[in-house]
Amino acid sequence: MHAPKDGVVKLYGAGGPHTAFQKVANAWQMKTGKRVEIIAGPERKWSAKAQSDADILWGTSEQSMTAFLETYKTFSSDQVEPIYLRPTIIAVKKGNPMKIERFEDLLKNGVKIVVTEGAGVSNTSGTGTWEDVAGRLGRLDDVRAFRRNIVAFGKGSGASLKAFKDLDADAWITWPEWPVTYADLLEEVALAPERKVWRDVNVALSPRADPEAKQFLDFLVTPEAQTLMKTEGWVR
Questions:
Q1: Is 55 exposed, middle or buried, given 0-12, 13-18 or 19+ CB atoms closer than 10 A?
Q2: Intervals of the chain under pLDDT 50
Q3: What is the pLDDT of residue 2?
Q4: Alpha-carbon distance 179 to 203, whole Å?
Q5: Which of 175, 105, 178 is nearest to 146 (CA)?
Q6: Percent of all residues in the chain with a pLDDT value above 90, rounded to a whole number
Q7: Which residue ranges form the domains of the chain, and what is each CATH number?
Q8: What is the pLDDT of residue 4?
Q9: pLDDT, position 211
Q10: Which strands make up the sheet holding 80-87, listed edge to edge?
């Protein structure tokens, strides 16, 4: 039974936004004294618990949230609210030894690229983003050349990060929060505006949630919260 009312505001979702959400949660807890728990990671690790006690679900893209709603039946599409956006970026090794400065540098022979792709079995915001970036200008040769350089299709951002390290890759098409969180390993190279793909983070509030959950969601889009979210690339 979905029974989230326990005096603790609990948010569940995939890794990525959780680090920025935690900054906002810390600020809110300092102001109110009320508890917030941010539970993140691959869905399989928290799915059963979320079906029991999630006050809030977040989706790292619209397609991710749509998939969640197939499982978490207490939540419905009309409860989903997009709250922030972020663009695709290129993550490279700290120091950028390959001197990657733009998308076209990824098409050169010998560049090792990691992409994030759900492959029909994993719910991840990265699904399809690399193809969208490579195909943005309508040039099939860009997609072909980019695909030849892919060395791993990570089933989720965590798996992609592991592949990036294990395979000593040169570039990863991902989101701005990852180079921020792993600044000792990665740095960001921005894509040109005509190459960027934007996806949102969205939230859904359970109709059975603790009353404080709505209060936290209201705080999550305040100017103070926007400043914290922007530190990891999230904008409104």
A1: buried
A2: none
A3: 83
A4: 23
A5: 105
A6: 93
A7: 9-85+200-230 (3.40.190.10), 89-190 (3.40.190.10)
A8: 86
A9: 92
A10: 36-40, 9-13, 56-59, 198-205, 80-87
Q: How high is the pLDDT of residue 1? A: 79
Nearest to 66 by CA among 206, 218, 202, 209: 202
| Per-residue three-class SS string for the chain | CCCCCCCCEEEEECCCCHHHHHHHHHHHHHHHCCCEEEEECCHHHHHHHHHHHCCEEEECCHHHHHHHCCCCCCCCHHHEEEEEEEECEEEEECCCCCCCCCHHHHHCCCCCEEEECCCCCCCCCCCCHHHHHHHCCCCHHHHHHHHHCEEEEECCHHHHHHHHHHCCCCEEEECCHHHHHCCCCEEEEECCCCCCCEEEEEEEECCCCCHHHHHHHHHCCCHHHHHHHHCCCCEC
What backbone torsions phi and psi does residue 12 show, to the nearest 5 degrees? -125, 145
- Which residue shows structure tokens 């990525």? 16
Residue pair 14/64 in contact by the 8 Å Cβ criterion: yes
